[in-house]
Amino acid sequence: MSAPSALNRSRGTADLGWDRSALVLTGLSAIGVLLTLVLGLIVTPKEAVEGNVFRIFYIHVGTAWNAYAAFFILFVASVLYLWKGSPVWDRCARISAEIGLLFTTVVLLTGSIWGRPVWGVWWTWDARLTTTLVLWFMDLAYLLLRSYTADEGRAPRYAAVVGIITFIDVPIVQFSVSWWRTLHPQADVLAAGHLAPSMLVALLVSVFAFTIFGAALFIQRLRLETLRDELRQLRNLAEELESDVR
Amino acid sequence: MTNLWYLIAAYLVLWIALFVYFYWINSAIRSIRGEANELEQRVQALEKDLQSGHDRQTAASLQ
Description:
The complex is a heterodimer of chains A (246) and B (63).
Chain A (H helix, E strand, L loop, with lengths): L1 H42 L12 H29 L2 H33 L7 H22 L6 H25 L17 H49 L1
Chain B lengths: L2 H60 L1
């Protein structure tokens, strides 16, 4: 008889904690995002060669960084799942893959939109673009494997292996601009003299804001999965009680 | 000036994608919470039924 009330109490306390952390992170990311918009669109000067379109850089790099971070979490969580077998790691891996897909999609789209006025084409089979597209497809394969594999016991293990393989592409994406001749600029924006100080500040603020936003998305998504689990428990409990009453 | 449209398009793509995902998560959370509250009420009602059934059985066995 005490099961549902214990469930209610733990749900109430956990919800408060979730709400607080989600609210703080969402608030911080909203401030960061507003600051990114002001800095990126108003404060920073127009780039000498590319003009205003260069301002895409501030969101493109910030989202790319978040995609890398999501794939790193996918890798760590997949390794930990294979090692420890805890469903928590599997859940973290799945959520990271989802967030990674979101940010990689944004990176590919903003990159394509930026490429059209600068390179004259929407898409080219450049090493950086191609390896990023491969990363996107691998991540999509991971999520499809999770959705369509009926075997609940084996699916997380297969997916963890795919998750680890997916992450191997991240350093290839990063170093592709050094290993091959590419149209895509080198990733040395932090080197002295490459960016005006105000541009560098806008970039760092954007990376920070997107990181916080990514963390807020991760926490909210984790909360959604936890609530789904609790709902499943409640359904089972209700079914048991109904059969007892009958 | 034409390049400005590319800039606007890139920022729109980003914010629409992030907003849609964030909205989807939050609306799913709201709907699950609603369903969980209904289920909790049903569980409590069933517990009461079960308890009163037990009480009646005990009273009958004592008589």
